[in-house]
């Protein structure tokens, strides 16, 4: 737990969070979170709704103050140096934080002025960013006429005006269709390529895989796992085979039998009863072939077999043995984790 | 790789910040100006939002002059003409109150959108957002007052003192800005625009009608007269009358100024604090 006073330019941790706590009455939005984001990297904070992701971002943006613990961004303390901190961050919220009633250009110009750019510079910066985010043609139209993707892009542009050292992306693609989601991802990748440090919160494993270098998995205000994407993927089995027997009666026997076979990755085989499928985490194509071969040998008729990236739910299932946000069976596991931290 | 160029530039931005990053007066003005511009653009985008400022003075003036004018005028010892002279200065006072309410409803709507988060995460004085709102609303009020005076002259109001008229407008603006802090606080604290409007109505209605705006208070019961004597809307209306058509001014003027100062001194810090700490 190093006290950091190093200059923002010094290579190292851009965001340091230690024992952060925020309670709302009985709800523990954050219950002792530790986090380090290295400079120039993308940290993905993965968790279900209500895990505390947004609370974390709001504390790191000085919108709310923590009950306990400490956090520094680019060397500035969130509680003691909010003014300095606000100069070095960019925030893109879950809901586009732009003014819908005024044109895109006006939004960017306004933020430029609020960031103390001269009129001339604010104008130039607005033009430049609209161009860069392919919004020049819509510059003079009110934002209310924009599509969802255009709004997010404008939101990203707005966050970039002050050349932030650290950018928060709070569920940047929630509610977007897949094509628009890709658009936003491309923009984020470009910004990262320019050396911005990003703290990304997301509910999607796929998004984390696309954008993040490292991951922190949170649930009910606590960190339950962390590390590199590959590490986590290995833990949760990389891909998941979704195997649907033609006859649902065979679901449980098939699952039990595949489990005994022991082909799977690090996580174990599970049953999705509602979906009528057996989920088998695998690590390689060889394992995929082996599973299919074994099923064929056994003579089980399949309705379908698909491979998919692990969903958030499956990540949780593998990491904690319970579904994301499930209230009951989770407590002991969480407490153990807390002790370990 | 553009990493090499981008990293120093972000560092440079950081390094340019003075140690304590205090905001200068010029900074405050710049920020407030940028936010005022935003609010003015709203009006350009949605001109209908000016309808209340345009129509309220017209409708209220015509209503009071032609519906109550005759009978109250008689009681005043004259007729409708006499009532016009009486009620128009009161209208100026009322306009300032009624329109200041809008500052709260608009603000509450704003707060339910993400853009307020962005403002609060920017390195600007947190009062700027509120000051901008008040500036724009005062502008609307001046517009409404101009409309009111045009209608007033059309229904026969005699402007006897131009300096008195300007002094009245200034006094109304002062009082309105103090009341706006109350509505801004409601706008921050209450969940939605409807609640702000409902609360505003509860505050405004008794103040408006328990006053000398529409009718002289001599015929009211004693306890009510005590209320109206110190009701800032009464004193504002009476001061307006004194300034615009002549008569004693000093007492009402000072009571109104006193109210404005006290309300601002109490409510401005409350509004800014609530704005600062809103979750």
From TrEMBL, chain A:
GO terms for biological process: daunorubicin transport; doxorubicin transport; response to antibiotic. Belongs to the ABC transporter superfamily. Drug exporter-1 (DrugE1) (TC 3.A.1.105) family. SUPFAM superfamilies: P-loop containing nucleoside triphosphate hydrolases. Residues 15-245 form the ABC transporter domain. This is ABC-type xenobiotic transporter. InterPro entries: AAA+_ATPase, ABC_transporter-like_ATP-bd, ABC_transporter-like_CS, ABC_transporter_ATP-binding, DrrA, DrrA1/2-like_C, P-loop_NTPase. NCBIfam families: drrA. GO terms for cellular component: plasma membrane. It is an enzyme of class 7 (translocase). It comes from Streptomyces actuosus. Its main location: membrane. It is a peripheral membrane protein.
Automatic annotation (TrEMBL), chain B:
Belongs to the ABC-2 integral membrane protein family. Keywords: Antibiotic resistance, Cell membrane, Membrane, Transmembrane, Transmembrane helix, Transport. It comes from the Bacteria. One of its GO terms (biological process) is response to antibiotic. The chain crosses the membrane at residues 54-77, 83-103, 141-159, 165-189, 196-215, 253-272. InterPro entries: ABC2_TM (IPR013525), ABC2_TM_bact-type (IPR047817), ABC_2_transport (IPR000412), Nod_factor_ABC_transporter (IPR051784). Its main location: membrane. The lineage of its organism: Bacteria, Bacillati, Actinomycetota, Actinomycetes, Kitasatosporales. It is a multi-pass membrane protein. Residues 48-278 form the ABC transmembrane type-2 domain. It is found in: Cell membrane; Membrane. One of its GO terms (cellular component) is ATP-binding cassette (ABC) transporter complex. This is Transport permease protein. GO terms for molecular function: ABC-type transporter activity.
């Amino acid at each position: 737990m190093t006290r950091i006073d190093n200059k923002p330019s010094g290579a190292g941790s851009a965001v340091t969070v230690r024992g952060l706590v925020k309670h709302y009455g009985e709800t523990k939005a954050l219950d002792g979170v530790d986090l380090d984001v290295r400079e120039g990297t993308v940290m993905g904070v993965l968790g279900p709704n209500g895990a505390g992701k947004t609370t974390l971002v709001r504390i790191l943006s000085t919108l709310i103050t923590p009950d306990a613990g400490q956090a520094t961004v680019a060397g500035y303390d969130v509680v003691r140096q909010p003014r300095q901190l606000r100069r070095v961050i960019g925030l893109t919220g879950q809901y586009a934080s732009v003014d819908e009633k005024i044109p895109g250009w006006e939004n960017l110009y306004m933020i430029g002025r609020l960031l103390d750019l001269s009129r001339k510079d604010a104008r130039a910066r607005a033009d430049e960013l609209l161009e860069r985010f392919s919004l020049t043609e819509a510059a003079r139209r009110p934002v209310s006429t924009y599509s969802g993707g255009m709004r997010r892009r404008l939101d990203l542009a707005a966050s970039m005006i002050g050349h932030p050292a650290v950018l928060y992306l709070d569920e940047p693609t929630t509610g977007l269709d897949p094509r628009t989601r890709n658009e936003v991802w491309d923009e984020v990748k470009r910004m990262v390529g320019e050396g911005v440090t990003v703290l990304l919160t997301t509910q999607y494993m796929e998004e984390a895989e696309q954008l993040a270098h490292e991951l922190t998995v949170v649930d009910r205000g606590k960190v339950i796992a962390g590390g590199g994407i590959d590490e986590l993927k290995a833990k949760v089995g990389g891909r998941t085979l979704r195997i649907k027997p033609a006859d649902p009666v065979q679901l449980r026997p098939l699952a039990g039998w595949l489990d005994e076979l022991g082909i799977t990755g690090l996580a174990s085989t599970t049953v999705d009863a509602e979906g009528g499928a057996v989920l088998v985490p695998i690590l390689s194509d060889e394992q995929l072939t082996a599973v299919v071969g074994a099923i064929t040998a056994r003579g089980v008729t399949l309705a379908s077999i698909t491979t998919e990236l692990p969903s958030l739910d499956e990540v949780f299932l593998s990491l904690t043995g319970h579904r994301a946000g499930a209230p009951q069976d989770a407590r002991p596991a969480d407490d153990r984790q807390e002790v370990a931290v | 790789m553009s990493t090499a160029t981008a990293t120093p530039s972000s560092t440079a931005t950081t390094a340019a910040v003075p140690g304590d990053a205090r905001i200068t007066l010029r900074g405050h003005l710049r920020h407030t100006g940028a936010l005022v511009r935003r609010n003015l653009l709203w009006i350009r985008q949605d001109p209908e939002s000016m309808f209340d400022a345009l129509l309220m003075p017209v409708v209220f003036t015509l209503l009071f002059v032609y519906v109550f004018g005759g009978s109250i005028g008689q009681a005043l010892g004259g007729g409708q003409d006499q009532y016009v002279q009486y009620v128009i200065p009161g209208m100026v006072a009322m306009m300032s109150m009624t329109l200041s309410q809008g500052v709260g409803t608009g603000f509450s709507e704003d707060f339910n959108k993400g853009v307020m988060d962005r403002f609060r995460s920017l390195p600007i004085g947190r009062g700027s957002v509120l000051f901008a709102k008040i500036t724009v609303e005062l502008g609307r009020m001046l517009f409404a007052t101009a409309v009111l005076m045009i209608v007033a002259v059309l229904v026969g109001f005699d402007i006897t003192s131009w300096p008195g008229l300007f002094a009245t407008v200034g006094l109304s603006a002062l009082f309105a800005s103090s009341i706006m802090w109350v509505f801004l606080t409601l706008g921050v604290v209450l969940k939605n625009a409807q609640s702000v409007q409902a609360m505003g109505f509860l505050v405004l209605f008794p103040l408006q009608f328990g006053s000398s705006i529409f009718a002289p208070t001599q015929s009211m019961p004693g306890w009510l007269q005590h209320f109206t004597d110190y009701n800032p809307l009464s004193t504002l209306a009476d001061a307006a009358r004194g300034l615009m058509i002549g008569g004693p001014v000093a007492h009402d003027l000072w009571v109104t100024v006193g109210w404005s100062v006290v309300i601002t001194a109490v409510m401005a810090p409350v509004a800014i604090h609530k704005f600062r700490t809103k979750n």
